[in-house]
């Protein structure tokens, strides 16, 4: 006997209707006979139809109903002639419906939801009357055994002091709705009576729904108002007292003075004040023990406050200390813009013209801009910026990092060349080749000798010495042609060995 999956694959292969093929195979047909019979679609009277849909329509049933009956093992005659009213059903009031779908539609719930509830063991009354939130927003009421109406299934459960999940579990176990609702739950929560919301009234008799709205109406913060009320102030004092008068007590004024002296923010010093149990002497002792001075003698509460004042990070400060720099150099701003603001020897002239970039060096000499100053001291402007950012003074950045003087001429084998390019052209060697051997540590003469040796040995391009018509000697034909500004191909080899 073939399974449903195997029959479906065979029907797909032979292009026949699968339920009809399954019917003929169940009637002890061979595979070939069943395929042939399925291709010729006929009823019990031998009348032939073009398709299974036409056959089902002729007998007044749906194609899906006909195929489902064949899959269930019904005979062809019963599948075609059986009435569909045998699927009728009744609700809890005894009213008859043609199908479950029609009954679900009458109660305004999806048929799939109703089928699922009945499959889970719900009673027909519970399955039909349990509320369901529809797409349109309408909520169907739910009835208990005594006829009371509730907005939802969960509301009905809570009315009987039962959790909705507990009620559903009891119904799944086969209990009736009355039994499931009346059995007391050991974990039932005590329903507390609802507490009326407190309304706040100010001293003028105006009511507010909450404290936030009252604080907003009087233009103060909610936290400030709550703190004042917790301190025992009256409503009028809490609402009418100005913020400044409530803050500036004697201790607050002293804390502000300490914050200004030790360069501490007000919230930070308040936090330390509260940690020391609101003791002013203990706070002073703590600040003096942890205070630190810079090179100008200014007192700070800690290292971080001093570094923040000088715009220097911890890593920069300790790296400079490790390098052996003094405190002034360690606190020098890292960025060039900050150095311009603190180094008096590099402050630009204060003119009304914003485009004026004039500067002064460490000796007081005036320059139109930074580039002109760096050119005067023979220092690269980028190098100057780099060492200024590293913490060096303007004098150190200008005098300790001058450029190396450029070589203006080269003396090789007793002959002077104005540039390295002229030297390379004379010996017919590339400048990159000379630079390669110079980087290896060779002198200029050794680099040229080595380059000529490798050129002759490995490339075979080294040419013999030649003379022009005036008797001038050249190391190669290339050099002679280059001297006369002519192309080597124009000589046709006639220039070689000219005497």
pLDDT < 50 stretches: 133-139, 188-197, 244-248, 335-354, 458-462, 490-499
Largest beta sheet: strand ordering = 1-2
Count of helical segments?
Answer: 30
Percent range of helical residues: 40-55%
Radius of gyration: 52 Å
How many structural domains can be distinguished in the coordinates? 6
Task: Supply the helix-strand structural class.
Answer: mainly alpha
N-to-C terminal Cα separation, in Å?
113 Å
The overall average pLDDT, rounded, is: 76
How are the SSEs ordered, and which strands pair?
Layout: H1 4-14, H2 18-26, H3 31-39, H4 52-58, H5 63-71, H6 76-81, E1 89-90, E2 96-97, H7 100-106, H8 111-119, H9 124-129, E3 142-143, E4 149-150, H10 153-159, H11 164-172, H12 177-182, E5 200-201, E6 207-208, H13 211-217, H14 222-230, H15 235-240, H16 243-247, H17 250-261, H18 266-275, H19 280-290, E7 292-293, E8 299-300, H20 303-309, H21 314-322, H22 327-330, H23 336-342, E9 359-360, E10 366-367, H24 370-376, H25 381-389, H26 394-399, E11 410-412, E12 415-417, H27 420-426, H28 431-439, H29 444-459, E13 466-467, E14 473-474, H30 477-483
